[in-house]
Specification:
mainly alpha, 130 residues, Multidrug-efflux Transporter Regulator, Chain: A, Domain 2, 2 strands
Length: 130
């Protein structure tokens, strides 16, 4: 199967598929004319990657998950450990975003938003100095 067909089937841009090949996540065969020839297994791996990336897993996490997926003697504890670490990172980012939201909401409430030039938002961004 050629890349445009694979892109449509996997729901990924061709550029992303080429990148995944470049970093060794997929290994399509090459025809005599040099064109990539993707197998059903390649499409399955690309769908796996699309779903994992959609859940926010890093490229390295995806590499590890694919490796575990390919390893029939794997332990689910290894997969769970990767997922738990990712969940902890998501929770950290949520806390950070909540903190940012609180700070920005406070600044917005403090700003009169009128014709006067003084603005607590700009003062804060400038480090409190005016």
């Amino acid at each position: 199967m050629q890349i445009r067909e694979v892109a449509e089937s996997a729901g990924l841009p061709a550029k992303t598929i080429r990148y995944y090949e470049e970093i060794g996540l997929v290994h399509p065969e090459r025809r005599e004319n040099g064109y990539r020839d993707y197998s059903n297994e390649d499409i399955h791996r690309l769908r796996f990657l699309q779903r994992a990336r959609g859940l926010g897993f890093s490229i390295e996490d995806c590499r590890a998950l694919l490796s575990l997926y390919d390893e029939k003697g794997r332990e689910s504890a290894d997969v769970r450990a990767i997922a738990e670490a990712h969940l902890e990172e998501i929770d950290r980012k949520i806390r950070e975003l909540q903190s940012l939201r609180g700070t920005l909401a406070h600044l917005i409430r403090a700003c009169h938003g009128d014709h006067r030039p003084d603005c607590p938002i700009l003062d804060d961004l400038a480090g409190g100095a005016q």
